[in-house]
Amino acid sequence: xxxxxxxxxxxxxxxxxxxxxxxxxxxxxxxxxxxxxxxxxxxxxxxxxxxxxxxxxxxxxxxxxxxxxxxxxxxxxxxxxxxxxxxxxxxxxxxxxxxxxxxxxxxxxx
Length: 110
Fold this sequence. Notes:
Radius of gyration: 23 Å
Strand content: 5-15%
Oligomer: single chain
Structural class: mainly alpha
Shape: elongated
Number of strands: 3
Number of helices: 6
Order of helices and strands: HEHHEEHHH
CATH architecture of the domain at 31-83: Orthogonal Bundle
C-alpha cells in the first residue's frame, strides 16, 4: 500500500472516464448535471440507495469539492442496464384465462 488515501477510488474513476461512460461527446459543460437528491427523485430511489450505487462504482459521478453531480446520460445508461423482461428474470407471465360461462352469461353484464 502506498498509504495515499483514495488510491482505489482514483483508479476506478480513471477507468470509468477512459471507458468514455461520462464523456460521450467530450463536452461536459453542455450535459445536464443533477445533484444526488435530484437524481434520486428522477430515478425513484432514496438518496441513500443512490449513494450506495455511486460508492459501489455502478454509476459514475463528477466530484467537485464536496459536491457530487451525476450526468443525465450516465443515469439513463444505468437505467437501461437495469431494464429486464420477466422472461430474462426467469418469471413466467401469467396466461389469460377464459371467464366462466356463469360470468359471461350474467345478467349484470348485459
